[in-house]
Design the sequence.
């Protein structure tokens, strides 16, 4: 696990400490965490067995890394929150939400972590950024802009207020700003502190 800093910009008012487990080097490359692509199940065509294997890999990583973050950052009873997928929650099947399921399972099995995976729910479609140029699937909704999380999501402010939060995403890519905007939305909703964590960090960011 490595640390980095998310630098403030027009989406985010303050620098935020972040962590990641490994680099994302490129789709289907040998050293790439390709299980994350499988777990996205974008076209809803992955087998249940393959999805469970990928989900369990994420659980294993989270069970290793999150306790380390808790110790490093000296936090207790932190709320574990997922960055929501780009489309409204109601448009996804259960088999397309297994990253969120992995976070929920891990959170419920780590001492000092509270499951907050229902704290942010996408209710309005946004553009899926990694499919920006796709011609074979509908990709409606707005591109990232400051405030898009608040505009398109339901945030449980009672849940996040005054909480230390670990915000989790599968892949962090600099300059996309989905994660930055989500962090700011949590801070604006009263979170005491937000630490970011991604399974993978896109190597070309560096």
Sequence:
């Amino acid at each position: 696990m490595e640390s980095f800093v998310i630098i403030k910009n027009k989406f985010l008012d303050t620098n935020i400490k972040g962590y990641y487990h490994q680099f994302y080097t490129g789709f289907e490359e040998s050293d790439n965490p390709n299980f994350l692509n499988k777990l996205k199940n974008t076209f809803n065509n992955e087998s249940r067995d393959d999805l469970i294997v990928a989900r369990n890999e994420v659980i294993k990583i989270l069970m290793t890394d999150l306790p380390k973050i808790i110790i490093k950052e000296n936090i207790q009873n932190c709320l574990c929150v997922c960055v929501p997928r780009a489309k409204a929650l109601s448009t996804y099947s259960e088999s397309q939400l297994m990253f969120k399921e992995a976070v929920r399972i891990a959170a419920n099995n780590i001492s000092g972590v509270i499951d907050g995976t229902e704290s942010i729910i996408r209710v309005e479609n946004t553009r899926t950024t990694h499919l920006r140029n796709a011609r074979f699937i509908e990709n409606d909704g707005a591109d990232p802009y400051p405030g898009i999380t608040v505009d398109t999501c339901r945030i449980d402010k009672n849940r996040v207020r005054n909480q230390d939060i670990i915000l989790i995403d599968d892949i962090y890519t600099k300059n996309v700003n989905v994660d930055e905007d989500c962090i700011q939305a949590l801070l604006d909703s009263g979170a005491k502190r937000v630490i970011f964590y991604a399974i993978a960090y896109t190597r070309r960011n560096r």
